Structures are given as structure tokens and as C-alpha cells.
Amino acid sequence: MKRIGYWVTDKKFKKMRFASFHDICRDAGYEAVRIKEPEDLEKQGPFDVFIHKLSDDIGSALDGDEEAKELVQKFQSHFQRCPSLLVIDPFDKVARMIDRREQYQAARDCFQKLQDDQYFIPNFVELTNTDVSSNKKLIEQAGITFPFIYKPAAAHGSAECHHLAVVFNEDGLRDLPPPCVAQNFTNHDAVLYKVYIIGDHIQVVKRPSLKNFKQGGSKESTVFFDSYGVSKPNSNSHLNKLDLKEEEPSDKTVLLSPDLDKVRKMVTALRSSLKLELLGIDLIIEKTTGRYAVIDINSFPGYDGVDNFFEVLLDMLSKRLQPNEREGTRKRKSSEPLEKDLHT
Predict the structure, then answer these.
(1) Which of 6, 206, 268, 322 has its CA 20 to 30 A from that of 44?
(2) Which residues bind ATP (predicted)?
(3) Is 135 known as a binding-site position?
């Protein structure tokens, strides 16, 4: 019997109802094992595959948190002792998604290789200090105009990672604690598409998002918000509500509905580049052009709204455990250390 080990927080275990995963696995001839104590990995194993939601811990470890470092290192040591273990997803690949600048650059490089201008990453730049004059030069050099979105540099590791802001003018540059990323705001009629990926399986879920803002900036004060709150399914934030004059489509409005063939082409390219099996892509469609903008990528997202998640997950794992699939997966070196040294 193939054994599937997994690590998730208590919160994710309950929210995603992981208890049902055990029943689904058992019925299909697999054994699911929830790992609670990394000290006893050898006793709980052996495992054929290991899946995890350790992105926050990896983010904290890279930020210097000693407890998180110890946790991550325990798993890495086990992986190194078990080179045939299939890890989804490899820690070094997940680590690339922690830093937003690095994440955006990786996606931008992917789209440039794709040579298809219907996909893009809105212009971005990393800001590492509070000097308004130098930051103004940086955003101008990066082709960023007001309004833009402020995002903490770290995409995982703490609740603060999801505390964003809309910056409307130069005065707002004083409001931004570094390190952070400034990214052009793209009007998209307050509609966000969560693109959930489980191996080859793709599902798109529509969510609320930020309303349109006047391009070129304004005198408005910086607006801080929680990205989770604004984009949750039942969000009723004033930031979701289009202005009355924009509720009816104009002649310049492009129909905001994703073409699934275009989405699949985008996902195939990103998966090939990022080497991740479990990921979520935040996709918006530019109001006036219909181009597809990727504004965030997350490893092992919540999969809210995905039909039969655990059945799809098990199907993906079953395929990856086949001998012909495993040979290609081994090339990823699942035990490869993180790109940044956790021991420093």
C-alpha cells in the first residue's frame, strides 16, 4: 500500500476537512498519514510521497525565525536521507514564491519566453528604504504610475504579508514600510479570477476584487486593506463597489470572462517554469485591452470553491507515483536545499 505523508496546520486541516482525505485514500488503496511531530518522521514513515503547506514556515525561516528554521531543517534532513521520496512541492521551488519581487520576475521571464503579449506582469519594483526622493526615481524608472499597489516584500510568513495598500500620489510614498514591492494598478472592473492548479487539473473561481481607480493619480490618501478580506467570496467592502458611472459597460470595456484555452496556455508555461504542482494564480483581465495580468502566485492555496479537491489531488499523486512519471520528477531533486541559507 502506497503511503502519503502530509503536513498542514491545524487551521488548514479543519478548514479543508483533511479528515475526509484519509477515507478517500483508504478507499483507493492508499494510506494517508498526517505528520504532527517532525522529530518522529522515520517512525511515522516510510512514505512514498510527501505533500505540505510549509510556505509560511519557509518564509519565516528565511526571515530568521529560529523555530521555523529548526522545523524546516528537520524536514530537509529527512528528505536527504530518503532521496527516492517524492516531495510536493520541493522546498527550493516554494522558496522562490516567498519573495514577491523574485516571484514576479520569474513569471515575467516565463511570459517573455512565451512571446505572447496577451499575458503580462504589471510593472513592479522593490523598495528597500523610506527615502521618498529615491523611491520616486525607482518607480518612475520601472514605468510605474499612480495609483499603484503597495505589497510587503514577503508573500508568506505572517498575516502582515496580506496587508496591502493603494497609493494615489507622491505623498503616499511616505506611508510605505520597507521592504516592499510597488506594482502598477490595473483596472479590472473589480473581478479577480483565482486559478487553482493541482498538477494538470485547472479550475477557475471568480472572486470580488478592487474597484477601478482613475489613472494618473489623485489627491486621495493611501488606502490600506487586507487582500483576504477584499477577495473573499462574500466580501462586501466598499473597495469592491464600482462607481455608478462604471456599472454599465462602456464602448471601451472588454468582456471580462477568461478564455479557458488561454488560461491553460498560461498555466502550462508557468508550471513548466516554476516547477510547482500545487499552486494558485491570481489573475485579472485588464479593463480596456482584455490582456491577462498575473498579480500573485501562491503555493498550495486554500482551493476554496474547487470541486472534489481531494479526489483530484489523489488522482494527481497516483499519476506522479507511476514509474514513468517518477523518473521525470527525480530530476527536480526534492531534497535540494533552499536557495538561501537557513543556518545564517
Answers:
(1) 322
(2) 100, 151, 183-194, 209
(3) no
Q: State yes or no: 236 annotated in a binding site.
A: no
Other CB atoms within 10 A of residue 116 CB: 15
189 appears as a binding residue in the annotation: yes
202 belongs to a structural domain: yes
Check the annotation: does 263 bind a ligand: no
According to the annotation, is 188 in a ligand binding site? yes
Residue range 240-297, pLDDT digits in tens: 999 866 555 554 445 557 999 999 999 999 999 999 999 999 999 999 999 999 999 9
> Is 185 annotated as ligand-binding?
yes
52 labelled binding-site residue: no
13 and 117 inside one domain: no
Q: Assess whether 126 and 271 both reside in one domain.
A: yes
Q: Is 238 annotated as a binding residue?
A: no
Query: What are the cell numbers at 41?
Result: 518522521
Is 12 labeled as ligand-binding? yes
Where residue 31 sits, what CATH number does that domain have?
A: 3.40.50.11370
Q: 209 among the known binding-site residues? A: yes
80 is in an annotated binding site: no
Q: Is the distance from CB of 101 to CB of 138 less than 8 angstroms?
A: no
The answer to whether position 342 is within a domain reads: no
Same domain assignment for residues 313 and 285: no
- Domain presence at residue 33: yes
Q: Is 275 known to sit in a ligand binding site? A: no
Q: Is 265 annotated as a binding residue?
A: no
Query: Domain containing 60: what range?
Result: 2-95+307-330
Q: Is residue 26 marked as binding?
A: no
Do 173 and 314 belong to one domain? no
Residues 160 and 180 in one domain: yes
Asked whether residue 64 is marked as a ligand-binding residue, the answer is no
Q: Is 183 annotated as a binding residue?
A: yes
192 marked as part of a ligand binding site: yes
Condensed to tens digits (0 to 9), the pLDDT of residues 217-240 reads 888 999 999 998 999 998 989 999
CATH number reported for the structural domain that contains residue 276 in this entry: 3.30.470.20
